[in-house]
Amino acid sequence: MNLVGDSVFGRFDWTALSFTKPEWRARTRVPIRERSRPLIYGSPLYPLSLPGPTPDRLALQPPDPWRGDSSRGDALFQGRYRFAGHEVSAPKMPVWLPAGIDEAWLVEMHSFEWLRDFKASGGEAARRYARALVRDWIRNCGHWRPLSWRADVLGRRVAAWSMNGAFLLNGADDTWRAAFLSSLAMQVRHLSRVVTRECAGAGRFSAARGLLYGALCVGPSERRFNQAIRVLIRECKRQVLGDGGQIERSPRLQRRILGDLADCRTLLLAANRVPPEDLVRTIDRMAPLLRGLCHGDGGLAMFNDTGEDDSELVKTTLDLAKVRARPLTNAAQSGFQRLAHGSSAVIVDTGAPDPGSKRAHAGMLSFEMSVGAYRMIVNCGPHEGRGAQWSQALRSTAAHSTLVLTDTNSVEIEDDGRINRVAPSVICERSEADGATWVDARHDGYGARFGLMHRRRFYLNASGSDLRGEDSLSPINGVATDEPQPFAIRFHLHPSVQASLVMHGQAALFRLPDGSGWQLRAVGGSLAINPSVYFGRDGERRRSEQAVIVGVCGVEGATVKWAINRIGS
Fold first, then answer.
1. SS3 508
2. CA-closest candidate to residue 445, choices 520, 566, 531, 352
3. What contacts 413, CB < 8 A, 6 or more positions away?
4. Closest to 198 in 3D by CA, of 166, 162, 243, 150
5. Is the separation of the CB atoms in 242 and 296 below 8 Å?
């Protein structure tokens, strides 16, 4: 079955998201200093500019709070390297820079965070093989390369080597020990130079965290320690909003950054240092929002390049944060709303995508719904790995559980993959009474092209058994397009949910894995069940279904009312 195009998301206009123009045409001019850095760092003489003492041991061997996966360690031992939804098989020694592989795979490979998976496997054989991989990396990638030595990747690797130092160094011969410590010290010195130069956003936290590990474990260096703390505090103030959300509005990055900051606090305490108050306050703000972005299964809601994520990884992050606050339900600054009553949880995207981002999705006013440990209404998820066509499709509005007008994205995605820098306006209001919750939101993403405002209202009753919604399109300032415009309201379903039309096509029945049933009814459009696709976990593509309400918006607008009720409630 063809799961691209008409059969999945409707008559999707692929030409609107064409990637035909070279990326450099859409960029601003790069300063000469920035363009010259690869020439300098890649020079055979550059390592000579990184002199310094080589320690004979790690000054601090901090605990690794992150759980390793022994089954993944066994796969790595067999030469199966699966990252970012793609597996590379290299049974003898890894291919560090395979041709045609996606950048996300390379980042995971060169970050070395998989060392903890070898440690989880246990045994001397796993330790020896892990040391062999480190030695092979030093031989092949021990001098500067554009991606593997990029500040964020370098920061993650320095932290991984430091926190797994005891595992690697125990029983190592003098030659391996000297090579490992020398390479680690040289990487820290380079990281100190580029920690704020090569990446922005979430990557800045990874770089600063690595520098903090280097300053306390490899040095120690008070100068690098102070530098790392300055960068961490500055980025906390720049990137974390008042409600604890990070500016890129991605639950995946929310978890990653909170984990980095909580990890830094743990490292500081292990080194008998007092964590800065700004760091502690940021952790305290971020944790409740992360809880609010989780479904009943403990995994993350799938907005803005986020998959389900490992629920154990989310739990470890929250445990490390040591914040016992309840999930944040009203994240007005970050643009998320959570309606949770009984066993039902509804999470709504009520914000605009991050302007200029190449990872943000065009999913304004989309929502997901879980019942207990089961996901029911979902978004299609992020694309991991190669394939521009899938990347375009999964970032589109049609890949989200929201209204799509004329098969057009609610926010424009430029030819180079960036979200249009002219952000639409999104307004949201929330109220609660008698145990029930209302959310009323609207955006003008379709205003410039069609003169229409999309408004979406939610109501969840006190028991969580009755979710009601209303989608409306109305002219902005009384002016809309002269021609009727088709629309579709999509409810993408998790692959575990069985769907069927009932009541002569007037309603849809959703059957969850525990046998419970929910019914969707709608007024103002025609209801159908169509194929969909799901990329929720590890980049794996799974077939699923979607309920779709279709109709036509006239010059005066259109309104569709719908309800999802638990059967027997």
1. strand
2. 352
3. 17, 362, 392, 395, 396, 419, 420
4. 150
5. no
DSSP conformational letter for 275: P
Indicate the SS3 state at residue 394: helix
**Tokens coding 409:** 């994205």
pLDDT of residue 35: 65
Summarize pLDDT for 404-449 with one digit per residue, the tens: 999 999 999 887 888 887 889 999 999 999 999 999 999 999 998 8
First and final C-alpha spacing in the chain: 37
> In whole angstroms, what is the distance from residue 271 CA to residue 39 CA?
38
DSSP lists the bridge partners of residue 455 as 442, 472
Q: Of 382, 303, 253, nearest to 244 (Cα)? A: 253
**pLDDT band of 22, cuts 50, 70, 90:** very low
Amino acid symbol at 502:
V
CA dihedral 366, 372, 376, 379 (to 10 degrees): 40
Please report, for residues 6, 366, 381, 446, the alpha-carbon distance to residue 407 in angstroms, rounded to integers and kept in the order given: 10, 15, 19, 11
Task: Give CA separation, 323 vs 223, 289, 334, in Å.
Answer: 31, 11, 19
Q: Which residues pair with 452 in a beta bridge?
A: 475
What are the residue ranges of helices labelled H in 201-276? 202-213, 222-239, 251-270
What angle separates helix 151-163 from helix 174-194, to the nearest 10 degrees?
140
pTM: 0.91
- The residue behind tokens 């007024």 is 523
CATH architecture assignment, domain 348-566: Distorted Sandwich (2.70)
Cα(275)–Cα(27) distance, rounded to whole angstroms? 39
Considering only 160-164, 218-222, 470-474, 524-528, which range has the smallest mean pLDDT? 218-222
Residue 538 burial (C-beta neighbours within 10 Å; 0-12, 13-18, 19+): middle
Residue 378 tokens read as 């979902």
One-letter identity of residue 26: A
- The domain ranges of the chain are 348-566
Q: How many residues does the chain have?
A: 569
What span, in angstroms and rounded, lies between the C-alpha atoms of 391 and 388? 5
Three-state SS for 64?
coil
Please report, for residues 178, 224, 445, the alpha-carbon distance to residue 454 in angstroms, rounded to integers and kept in the order given. 63, 50, 8
What is the pairing mode between strands 436-443 and 403-405?
unpaired
